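call fold(seq) -> tokens
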Amino acid sequence: MTVLYEDNHIIAVNKTCSEIVQGDKTGDEPLSETIKKYLKVKYNKPGEVFCGVTHRLDRPVSGVVLFARTSKALSRLNEMFKTQQVKKTYWALVKNPPFESEGRLEHYMVRNEKQNKSVVYDKMVPNAKKAALSYKLIAQSDTYYLLEVHLETGRHHQIRCQLAKMGCPIKGDLKYGFARSNPNGGISLHARNIEFIHPVSKELIQITAPVPEDDKLWLTFEKMV
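ret:
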């Protein structure tokens, strides 16, 4: 676990593609518990340590995740995420170039809980929720293209689903149509940056997550930008 930012109210870490944010049926230790242990040791805290989950990243996705260290910060951050006051920037590596170098995608998404997958439609269908994002091509190599993505809504597998619908499935994402998996089992989607007004101090906070250091392709693209 790599800590990117920490103060009395919040803590942000750089998640790897093998880590989970919250506990699930695998029984693997989630980041929320790892952080509790870290804080308990660092500050020699007796008893239970508070660590509130403010948002999530899919397990195969890497990048910045923000947690709350106090209940006050958690309730305020929850409201900020709900009202889209938190600006999140993602990087996605795709093999197929987008038709336009930048644009906005608007679709309607239906989540299939059993398959842990979402389906995207061009028009409204029963049980669908609107999904919107903007993207921009910011670098390219001989084989891959780096897209910067800004979310307007926060739907299940939204970036993965919408980019695949555009004909640009994310590298390694077998679930949404990429031909083969990545060696580490993750997908090439990285939560690069998060920007928000601090829930207590009211300062502007900007946190950037370095790309996975064990991935040569990511490191190559990071140098290009």
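The chain has four helices and eleven strands.
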